[in-house]
Amino acid sequence: MRPAHKLGRMEVRDLRWFLVLAEYEHVTDAAAVVSVGQPTLSRAIGRLERELGVALFDRVHGRVRLNKYGEVFRAHAVRAVGELDSASERIASLVDPSTGTVVLGFTQSYGTWLVPELVAGYKELAPGVDFELHSDAADRVVDDLRHDRVDIAFVSPQPAGNDVVWAELAEEELFVLLPSSHSLARRSEIALTDVAAERFVGLSPEYGLRQIADRLCADAGFAPHWTTTCSELPTLRALVAAGQGISIVPAAHGEQSSRDTVLVRIGGVRARRSIGMLTTAGRPYPPAVQRFRDYVLARAGSAAR
Fold first, then answer.
1. pLDDT tens digits for range 63-78
2. Cβ atoms 152, 105 nearer than 8 A
3. Structural domains of the chain ordered from first start
């Protein structure tokens, strides 16, 4: 039986060199990129090919091209090198909490103001910390957190389950968004029952804002008629401006305002959405993530006072 492959220091370097050669398809060019001589690079590729028992490249007219074995090996090499780099970053963050990478997930509407403000504020305190940002619908962001694809999530509303820890950071008031030509646009406040018969445009059902809007309307005694759905607040606002219906939204943060729409306060109910930070219960976080979490909580506490 052939012994299992073992990747030591030299072999990891060889993997990196292999990926460079696969990109440049020219031994001399690739050798220059990795700052070694052409014979050194050729010997490294030869070691990999001997270990695997197959040629990884076809040599044609002074150039090299991945063959079918090389294509398979490259796919795995990319993942292997990526995992090693991620491990190095994680270990670095354990050793020094002022460095490392924090992976954030958030609903798309928080990508225009909340997350950039938090990242910018924290980078002033810890410039050595890097951030990886992922925006999506609330349900998918929570799923990413539960499967450890993100470290911290910013969502609304609060999800069910005791496997995640919710910390409320702030609240946003919600309004009815009307075309400026609408008959109710000049009102300072309306009840949701006033617009029960209207056409509604909104986000898709998996988005937290849509779930809150559905609940508010249900509490008012009706189910909104969603005629058009989308995945981004700017598109939703543009649809209202184009006269395609009305919606329930927060006040815009950093989005371009429109003279074609009007925000009208919702009367008779507490029309707000809570902004929360989610972490995974019982998950051991590296210091870089813990320190960012503490920063967010302290910042939210200061804003509340």
1. 899 999 999 999 989 8
2. yes
3. 9-95 (1.10.10.10), 101-169+277-304 (3.40.190.10), 170-273 (3.40.190.10)
